[in-house]
Design a protein that fits this description.
This protein has about 140 residues and is α+β, with helices and mostly antiparallel strands. Helices cover about 45% and strands about 15% of the residues. The chain contains five helices and six strands, in the order ββββααββααα. About 10% of the residues are buried.
Length: about 140
Amino acid sequence: MKKYRCSVCHQYKAQKGFYSDSSNHRGIGSRCIECDAIYRKDAGSKRGKYFRDYSLLNKEKIQAKWKSDEALKVGKIKRQPCELCGVRAEKHHDNYSEPLKVRWLCRRHHMQHHNGAKDNIPPSEIGRKYHERFKSI
């Protein structure tokens, strides 16, 4: 019977001592079941607290995202190119109380918008190579 080494406790255990994981080339996880339980408990409590706090503080934002995602899926709104440079874009809500009213901005312009650069900056100033590479997407 082949034994596998846990990446946390470094003990060798039989395959039944690991959870299955189809993304791993061996077909099992890198942590044994005992170490995985500890990891999930610790990580889950930290992640859980963060997501609980975030969802309580951003209910309107989350609901607007869900509603616009659903509208995009059923065809109520259609994906558009970036309104500033014409490359593939993502949704931006100026007002979360109007979830179907979205602006389409590429990742770069979206981040510039949120970081305070709200002027219409031409693509030549923000990196033409970046936009040329993603125009075909």
